[in-house]
Amino acid sequence: MKMAKRRKFPIKACVAAAALCAAGAANADDSSVTLYGIADAGLMYLSHSTPAFNGGTGAGREFQLTNSGYSPSLWGLKGTEDLGGGLKAEFKLESGINLANGGFDNPGGNNGLFNRTADVGLSGGFGKVMAGLQLSPFFEMIFDLDPRGTSEFGSMLIPVSENSLIAAIFMPNAVTYTSPNIAGFQFAALYSLGGVAGSFQTGRAYSVGAKYTNGTLLVGAAYINVNNAADSALASVGELYPANVRAYTAGASYKFGGLTAKASFANFKANSVPVSVDPALANSTNTSVNIYSGGVDYFALPDLDLNAGVYYQQDRVNSGGHSVMGAIGTQFFLSKRTSLYAQVGVVNNTCARDGVCLGSGLSVESGGSGVGGLQGLGTAAEGLGLPPGTTVGADVGIRMTF
């Protein structure tokens, strides 16, 4: 029987092949791309709905399948590459999902593929610099200070949406810098270029935030200034989009074992009348709304979270106008990635003496949030907000992360 002929490989070729394999393994280890997301859907009941969303002039009861009952449904890609010497390149691409119909969930009418985040940048010992569509440092602070984690139902996200739509949240054409954590202190700054030829002011925005954390105590503050947002890349939600938004917030949280207590204050100034109706408002603000919030988040068991929050809005321009919203929620974790949730909330709207109402709501998804401080078009029943009086709602659903 003839023996198979053994091939001989030069030593140099073996060494070169080994080097290439090692280099390939090193490159694979030094870079990564991660697919992630949240799928959230539930059933929601409201004792009053928003006229503009139910097609009628009244505000009747509403029962619906709701996308993003607790948190936004989304998917995204994020990646890093180690460039050596502690320097890394990073990117993040994120898009909203509407589980009710399988389409996009488009913040502010942005119909782009990645309509929530699309940025790239560098990070290292100096901190992080990113460029693209991003969340503002102001909204990041709102999230840190909200006892209900900016839930889509009955949280600080509702008054933020009511008083700025998305002008205080998503920042297009933006460059951000986030400092490293130095002895618990951290600072972030964002500048959004308007991109309008001949005018550096149109669509321009900037935001700053600073906080101190030590594992138990968090103290923070942030500011945002958005100019001529109605002309920006994300302003496709119609004439009610505010031309200008000015807002600041400050607050603190303290952790007692499994319980975290939070309290904050915020003020929003914006335009309440469409710019096309009164062009003079294009460079001014004519509303002012104070928001006081407080609440707790408590892990009663390792797999059971309970939280509650109260949010009081005060119209500083139209005397007597205010709203009070309260909500409680619970999440039961079936696993690290899947949870069942239930939320109950109530909001009471009191109109100002001149009849103007904030029209505050309970849910972003239902459209019940109205336009809050942007409501300058008469009573809430004539605009987008909920009617005067009390509205009760409940929301149950399932949330899965991947």
TrEMBL record:
CDD domains: gram_neg_porins. Residues 1-28 form the signal peptide. It is a multi-pass membrane protein. GO terms for biological process: monoatomic ion transmembrane transport. Its main location: membrane. GO terms for cellular component: cell outer membrane; pore complex. Residues 16-350 form the Porin domain. The keyword Lipid metabolism does not apply. Keywords: Cell outer membrane, Ion transport, Membrane, Porin, Signal, Transmembrane, Transmembrane beta strand, Transport. InterPro entries: Gram-neg_bact_OMP (IPR050298), Gram_neg_porin_domain (IPR033900), Porin_dom_sf (IPR023614), Porin_Gram-ve (IPR001702), Porin_Neis (IPR002299). The keyword Hydrolase does not apply. It is found in: Cell outer membrane. One of its GO terms (molecular function) is porin activity. Homotrimer. This is Porin. It comes from Paraburkholderia polaris.
